[in-house]
Specification:
By secondary structure, this protein is mainly α. The chain has one domain (3-104). Helices cover 52% and strands 7% of the residues. The chain contains six helices and two strands, in the order αβαβαααα. A two-stranded parallel sheet has the order 1-2. The longest helix is centred in the C-terminal third of the chain and has 15 residues, at 90-104.
Length: 107
């Protein structure tokens, strides 16, 4: 997650409260999604951004996870996401996201 997005997430969590924020990721690999998820839950593991040492514990999901997918109108999902989903290792992404949530999410 780039430094500008870290800054945005931190500001939103401060403004609205971390319990009211859900981060939805769209990374194409489990490892990349996991790194971003770790950043918004446990703090920036690269020690380079505004979330370094900041444990927000935010709720975080990947757009291909059923909990999020089921909230998106089917026609919109089909048009915007389904083609990409066919080439992703969704199981790997879901496993990575679940592990990060189980370990670091507070909400």
């Amino acid at each position: 997650m780039d430094l500008e997005n870290q800054k945005r997430v931190k500001e939103l969590a401060e403004k609205y409260g971390p319990e009211n924020i859900v981060v939805i990721l769209g990374a194409a690999e489990g490892e990349a999604a996991g790194l971003a998820a770790e950043t918004v839950t446990a703090g920036d593991p690269t020690f380079a951004g505004p979330l370094t040492g900041v444990q927000l514990g935010l709720s975080v999901y990947h757009v291909c996870e059923e909990a999020i997918k089921s909230e998106i109108p089917e026609d919109v999902y089909d048009e915007q996401i389904s083609m990409m989903e066919m080439v992703l290792d969704v199981d790997d992404i879901v496993n990575e996201m679940t592990a990060i949530r189980d370990e670091h999410s507070k909400y």
